[in-house]
Amino acid sequence: MKMQDYSKRPIYWFRKISEIPRPSYHEKAISDYIVKFAEEHGLKAEQDEVWNVIVEKPSSSGYEHAPALILQGHMDMVPQKRPGSDHDFLKDPIRLKEENGLLKAEDTTLGADDGLGVAWMLAVLEDDSLIHPKLECMFTVQEEVGLGGAMHLKPEAIRADRLLSLDCCAEGITDLCCAGGQYAYMDAKLNRTVNDSPVYEIQISGLKGGHSGADVHRERGNAICIVARIAEEMIRNGIQARAVSMYCDEKANAIPRACSFRFASASEEKRIMESIHTSAEKISEELHSSDPGFACTVIHTDPEETAADESSTKNMLDFLWLAPKGFQHRSMDPELNGLTVTSLNAGTAETSEDQITVTWLIRSMFDSAAADLLDILKTLAERCNVGFRYTEFFPGWQYAEHSELREIYSEVMKEQGRELKTEAEHGGLEAGIFAALHPGLDICTLGADCRYYHTYDEELDLASFARGYETLRGVIAKCAEEQK
């Protein structure tokens, strides 16, 4: 490749991969594309049964003794579209557009998380003008739905002692650590019986929500927990409530902004309305700073032939009301700047014929703290007589005071007249899994400015994307030169 061409290649590759549908669990096409790319460029590629791909590029001539470097990013993207859009994420390409130096998509997520990392790796792999150590480019799957691809890897997949993650949506900032996590599920059985009572629906809306890792310390209202509290207070006021359904169509890793709870009741309507409105007024006062838009409404809904009995309704609501929630503990380490260490979030709620299921996401930098929260939920589930299940814990990435790779990154930034900033991360990253697979692995993250990711307003700053690639090339070259 000609020297003057390399800077144009990342955006070229971003456009190419945007033509390939790649929502989570549907990464085979993009995985096969990368394998074919490797074959066409004479590079070794390994593809596993879940479609992770590792592509090796031998070191530049004369740099064979430089320690190898892993570059890593994930292929999948979050499929969100604007209401009314007919986009099919399983068939249609992402339709790109540029506005005022920003790359966006037509009514869908852009996929810069982590398409930017995938595009950078493809550009690096084809660039023979770049001085580099042996490179191992790792393209993973299912990151957005629980880090599934990384969880599938075996220790032998991590063959180098340094890893540069390109799954970062901020330029000039590198992560220092991340939390581990675990999904848990309350499965509350509804013992349905014949119903001839009116049916009501409590609707919670107007909350700010946010990311359950990045925003949980803001202690914003959780719609699922709020609706459970209002229903509990209603029952304690002597009002009958028989669950019909609960619905919250958010994500497990998002603080829910809205939730609805339908119930049947033979109690006097006036008492029902007074209890709900009184509870809502108290909660509104508590949330006036964090969630000024909080709203609670109650309406009559269509009749239901059946509703849960009072006992199974109370079991479900007791669990949701009593379970620990939100922010739990923060770090006092000055380097971590008050980082949230442990939290848990109720993120989704759905109803089947005879069951309400609520999804929880537990996060912690410490396996022991996460295990303690899980045991609390398990014990509470037993006491409340509701079902409970959980996934395997994905490990966190512990803060390391010294990192040679971070120092190299900082030196490159200084040469560019900039200063590298560091940030502790409470959200889950694949880096935690890699660290567990290869103890002592030196990890750093590098990215570009991408805003509103996971939404149809997602945008990538093209100037930042270009600068980030220059920085990446600089880090790769210095890794070869300083370790020669």
Structural notes for this entry:
With 484 residues, the chain is α+β, with helices and mostly antiparallel strands. 30% of the residues lie in helices and 26% in strands. The chain contains 11 helices and 25 strands. It has helices spanning 9-17, 28-40, 112-126, 148-152, 223-236, 269-286, 310-322, 367-384, 404-415, 430-437, 462-482, and strands spanning 44-47, 53-57, 69-74, 96-99, 102-105, 135-140, 162-165, 173-175, 180-189, 192-194, 199-205, 210-211, 242-247, 254-255, 259-264, 295-300, 306-308, 326-330, 340-351, 355-364, 387-390, 421-423, 442-445, 450-451, 459-461. The strands form 7 sheets. It has a 6-stranded mixed β-sheet, covered by helices on one side. A hairpin with a 2-residue loop joins strand 4 (96-99) and strand 5. Helix 5 (223-236) crosses helix 6, helix 7 (310-322) packs antiparallel against helix 8 (367-384) and helix 9 (404-415) packs across helix 11. The longest helix has 21 residues, at 462-482. The radius of gyration is 25 Å and the shape is elongated. The model has no long low-confidence stretch (mean pLDDT 94).
